[in-house]
Amino acid sequence: MNAFTAETQSPQRTRRNANFLCDLRVLCDSAVKRILGLHQALMPDYNRKAALYWWSVVLLGLAVLLHSLQQLAALPLSAWLQIIVGTALAMVAGLVPVRIPRSTNSFTAGEIFIFLLLLMCGPHAAAVASAGEALVGSWRSSRRWTSRIASPAIAAIAMFSAGSLLHAALAALQRHGLAHDGLLLLATMAFAVGYFVFNTVLVTMVPRLKRNEPLNLRVFVDSFGWLGMAYAGNASVATFLFLGFRQSGIVIVIAAVPIIVILLTTGHFFFRREEAEEAVRKAAEQQAAQRQLLENARQAGMAEIATNVLHNVGNVLNSVNVSAELIAGKVRDSESAGLARAVKLFDEHAADLGDYLTMDPRGKMLPAYLKQLTQALDEERRSIAAELAALTKSVKHIKEIVATQQSYAGASSVVESVQILDLIEDALRIDTGALMGREVNVRRDFEPVPALMLDKHRVLLILVNLIGNARYAMQRGPDAEHRLTLRVRVVDERSLQVAVVDNGEGIAAENLTRIFAHGFTTKKDGHGFGLHSCVLAAREMGGTLQAASAGPGRGASFTLVLPLQASSETP
């Protein structure tokens, strides 16, 4: 009966165990999913691998700390005092980092006290101290709660693992009778490098998991090589302090603490000063490069104006050439030759001129011919006079263009009292040659503006570029009336707005964000420096240059905004 009952209950117990394991597995999967979902909601930039790794190191680090505190609870009060003081010194030292020159890495004197606790009290005390020092460092350098939690846990794991290996190695040397102060120093320095590598790999694992990047040994050494040497140096200092403590007691450690603090503080502020000087040097170099860039932009702007002037003069010279050819043709085919033939007839019949004019058939036609010749010569004179007037006007226009250019040639960055309306007219005059004959309706929408203190060279550079670009856009725009609107406004009595609006081809939305970038152009023969030099000139004057467009085929507007600085001169 008992055997039958046992045989009956055995399959039932097996099924219950299987059901329990299945429920436990489901419960664990549900817990993991909830933890990952919570973490994903709090830290959306973590992928699944990074989240699992973060929770693993946090839980493992918490277990290491709890185990260490449990082991330390059995120590006497004197050992606890040593651990508390060492941990406090490590955390305070973490507030004053010493940055490695020409890098973003730094170390603190906290590692010295942590390594000393490792040699004096074991890996459990060192794990607690390293967690405290990492907590201070993470709060100092990061605002992410994930880093502030994970850094102490990783430090505890790395210190406990490396410290346990060090104590196991020292115990093995002791058992084989090889205990020596030199070997202790070498072992501690090797441990420090191992601890640094292990801790750094664990810390950098999170961003590498986020980006799915493998560990690059060369990049790792280049980035953290100096920091590993600093850890080895801290380990050597801690070893000497431990040897002094073993021979002379705690007094040697107490006496060394102020010296270490002074040295590390001095190094901290020394390297901070070096960083400040380096920053000043870089800022000076950047300012020099910016000035050079602005000078290049200014020279390019002057070249742009000169190119426009030559282009416009060439257009006007075409008109001069046409007028000159018309005048030459009229002179060549002049009716004055008929007058010469009539005079010749008068000379030939000077003796019988009366009979010739009244009796001769050809002589009778001569008065009517002279009348017609007079009318033709008068019309010819008026035509040549009109062409000469056009020629004179074109030559005068060339003189105006050249004079305008000469007034700005070689101009340096000089702020003077100018009328913005005069500058706009100068820019139009420079570009009028290109606007001639293209049916461009120029509309001036000007508000009364007093004389302002402006750098007229830079302002003219901007206006000539904007008007030229508007003309080019209208040439490629829809076949309609080309309208160029120039608008001047004073806004809030603090800024001057000059707008150049056209109804040309417009600007695509994706080009609005890069239209001022150096090298960007939509012209076949463009160099992509015009608008870039304009925005640099506007910024140098404390203003801005903005572009707007409703899209391709709908025109564009460029607005120059300058700070309003009225001149003391009367407008």
Feature tags:
about 575 residues; five-stranded mixed β-sheet; about 70% helix; 16 helices; elongated; disordered N terminus; about 10% strand; alpha+beta
- Tally of helical runs: 16
Percent strand equals 5-15%
Sheet with the most strands: spatial strand order: 4-6-7-9-8
Helix content: over 70%
Order of helices and strands: HHHEEHHHHHHHHHEHEEHEEHHEE
Gap from first CA to last CA? 124 Å
- Rg, rounded, reads 46 Å
How would you describe the overall organization of this protein?
The structure is a single chain. The strands form three sheets. This protein has a five-stranded mixed sheet with strand order 4-6-7-9-8. Strands 1-2 form a two-stranded antiparallel sheet. Strands 3-5 form a two-stranded antiparallel sheet. The chain has helices at 2-42, 48-72, 77-93, 110-121, 123-141, 145-175, 181-211, 217-248, 250-332, 336-348, 353-359, 361-408, 420-435, 456-475, 509-512, 530-540, and strands at 98-99, 106-107, 416-418, 440-446, 452-454, 482-491, 495-502, 544-548, 556-563. It contains 16 helices and nine strands. It has 571 residues and is α+β, with helices and mostly antiparallel strands. Helix 9 packs across helix 13 (420-435). It is elongated, with a radius of gyration of 46 Å. Helices cover 72% and strands 8% of the residues.
